[in-house]
Amino acid sequence: MTGMTSTPRPFLNRRLAEFGTTIFAEMSALAVRTGSINLGQGFPDTDGPEEVREAAVRALRDGRGNQYPPGPGVPELRSAVAAHQLRRYGLSYDPDTEVLVTAGATEAIAASLLALLEPGDEVIALEPYYDSYAACIAMAGGKRVPVTLRPDGGSFRLDLDELRDAVTDRTRLLLINTPHNPTGTVLTREELTAIARLAVERDLLVVTDEVYEHLVFDGAEHLPLAAFPGMRERTVTISSSGKTFSFTGWKVGWVTASPGLVAAVRSAKQFLTYVSSGPFQYAVAEALALPESYFTAFREDLRAKRDLLAAGLAEAGFTVFRPAGTYFVTTDIRPLGESDGVAFCRSLPERAGVVAIPNAVFYDHREEGAPFVRFAFCKRTSVLEEAVRRLKTL
After folding, report:
1. Which helix (H) or strand (E) holds 23?
2. Residues 6+ away with beta carbon under 8 Å from 387
3. Which of 46, 81, 172, 278 is most buried (most C-beta within 10 Å)?
4. pLDDT for 357-392, tens place per residue?
5. Separation CA 119–CA 138 (nearest Å)
6. DSSP per residue over 307-336, as a string?
């Protein structure tokens, strides 16, 4: 047998082999290389409120959080999260046993799925989905079952019959995201009622990603699934400070759920980061207590930016799906004579000096997402105006 060489085993765990570098890293690098306006990755180009930033500086100087904070998060932030859920939604959580602070919503999702799934469990996720969902399900050994949101009269809609049909005896968990990234859809009371009934009837756990909870427009209303009948004990609700307060680099997120679910998620989380973002936790606690006028002004500012970018994209020839929430606009490139969103986004920096994200990367059924492209509008007005000017050259 001498002289025979076996194929070396790849370094990367086969569960993660399909993922590679994220599209966000690729497109952000392309933006830097070409000097393009980056409307790809969803991060603001200005910082959030000065008083919140100062609260972080104060915590640093006072020595609060410079050493390991408590595993579940600092008490001030856990209390602020519980107060926020009660004030906003009438949901009562015990800050000591039902709130867990995480390294952003990304870790909250990872810890929840690693904690709650066994190998072979099926997870139903709304497609297109944020890319970390697929990777986290894979790391947990679960099997993802996508249910596709499809264009319907200017927005993307969930087919409740398709959702019901996707549930099998192996389904463990529904992974719900509303307001929905990347489509901008906000699930309605009727849709959420049907999802809640299905979860109760089939005894399913639900993980809900609600990071855009404060970014809903035009009379749309964010309704947490945990508030629906029978859902309080089976729902892990995830949110974070990054999108609401425009400090995405701080990575402060949280989980609210019943004590048993929080204990399970904490068991996984403690072996991921253990703890993180010490001084920032104190600042976010203060941010959550900002007056309602902050949240209203923030939402109105983003709504105006949405309208500016949506109008510009329509004028440039895209079909525009006007989002009811989040800070992303999904477009259809077929009116421009294009059909491959990935190729379009790779060529767009050279053609127009703008970077966007192809929605196809958020689909298992790539062909379903092929003609759709996502633009972020969480940028300064002058930047959006320049992006619109460039896109009109298409």
Report:
1. helix 23-34
2. 37, 39, 309, 312, 354, 375, 379
3. 81
4. 999 999 999 999 999 999 999 999 999 999 999 999
5. 9
6. HHHHHHHHHTT-EEE--SBSSEEEEE-GGG
3-state secondary structure of 37: strand
List, in order, residues 6 or more apart from 182 with CB less than 8 Å away.
Answer: 128, 130, 326, 328, 330, 357, 359, 362, 374
| Close Cβ partners of 147 (under 8 Å, ≥ 6 residues apart) | 124, 125, 126, 127, 158, 159, 162, 163, 166
Distance between CA atoms of residues 40 and 394, nearest Å: 18
E strands present in 215-364: 235-240, 253-256, 319-321, 328-332, 354-355, 357-358
Tokens of 369: 């997402």
CB 126 within 8 A of CB 158: yes
The three-state secondary structure class of 78 is helix
CB 181 within 8 A of CB 320: no
Q: Dihedral sign, CA of 288, 308, 24, 28?
A: negative
- Residue 41: the pLDDT is 86
Length of the chain as a residue count: 394
Q: Which two tokens stand for residue 356?
A: 């966007």
The answer to whether the CB of 79 falls within 8 A of the CB of 95 is yes
Indicate the pTM of the whole model: 0.96
Radius of gyration in angstroms for the set of CA atoms belonging to the chain, rounded to a whole number: 21
| Phi, psi for residue 319 in degrees, rounded to 5 | -85, 130
- pLDDT score of 4 more than 80: no
